[in-house]
Amino acid sequence: MEDQYTSLKAASEGYYKEKGSRFYGFAWPVHSLEEVEAHLAAVSKKYYDARHVCYAYRFGVKGEPWRANDDGEPSHSAGDPILNELRSKGISDALVAVIRYFGGTKLGVGGLIRAYGTAAKEAIENGQIVEIVLTERLEIRFSYEFTSEVNRALHKLSLKPDASVYEADCWQAFDIRKTEVAKVAGVFRELGILVEKLDKK
Fold first, then answer.
1. Boundaries of domain holding 158
2. Which of 41, 47, 50, 201 is most buried (CB neighbours < 10 A)?
């Protein structure tokens, strides 16, 4: 849906080993490039002796912007498999990084794709996936004499305001799904009621 996607509730980790090489996966919910950079810096500092720190991230309902980084591994052998795990599960607003400790035996491109993808998958699946619904906050303003009409409209729309004032000039505020904004605003405007979008705090 245009206002819903899946993400991670909290940080999680995964592990995969093949032919002596160890792959540690780390997954985080993120909401900005600054958070991405902070997590990558922390991992790089903690595991300073790792051969590679490869990663991928996605943002928003459509998974854009996104990035996949191989960090010196053969092209598309590390970042893309990590990104594909995020895409296959529809996960966004998330970063997954996989660090590798070389075990002395080359895995080949196919082996790397499998290893990085598996470590990413383990990190994601060891965490908790949550549904994110995007909402807008609306405020309606009306004269007290319109209270009955407003209440009927709220009931019909299955809306329950979480803030309200009833005086000569009344107002109510509530959160609704982004895809429902036009419909809800239209109902109240037909009644001659002022509808405003509020900044969410």
1. 135-198
2. 50
Task: Give the residue-averaged pLDDT of 13-18.
Answer: 96
| Count of positions (residues) in the chain | 201
Quick one: 87 and 177 in the same domain?
Answer: no
Confidence (pTM): 0.79
How far from each other are the two terminal CA atoms of the chain, in whole angstroms? 24
Mean pLDDT, the chain, rounded, equals 93
Same domain, 19 and 115: yes
Q: What is the pLDDT of residue 59?
A: 95
**In this structure, how many other beta carbons lie within 10 angstroms of the beta carbon of residue 107?**
21
Instruction: Taking residues 21-41, report their average pLDDT.
Output: 97
Contact (CB, 8 A) for 144 and 156: no
C-alpha separations of 53 from 61, 98, 111, 192 in Å: 26, 6, 17, 58
- Token pair listed for 74: 């053969």
Whether residue 139 sits in one domain with residue 65: no
Burial 95-106 (b: 16+ CB within 10 A, else e): bbbbbbeeeeee
| Helix, coil or strand: residue 144 | helix
Instruction: Report the distance separating Cα 64 and Cα 151, nearest Å.
Output: 40
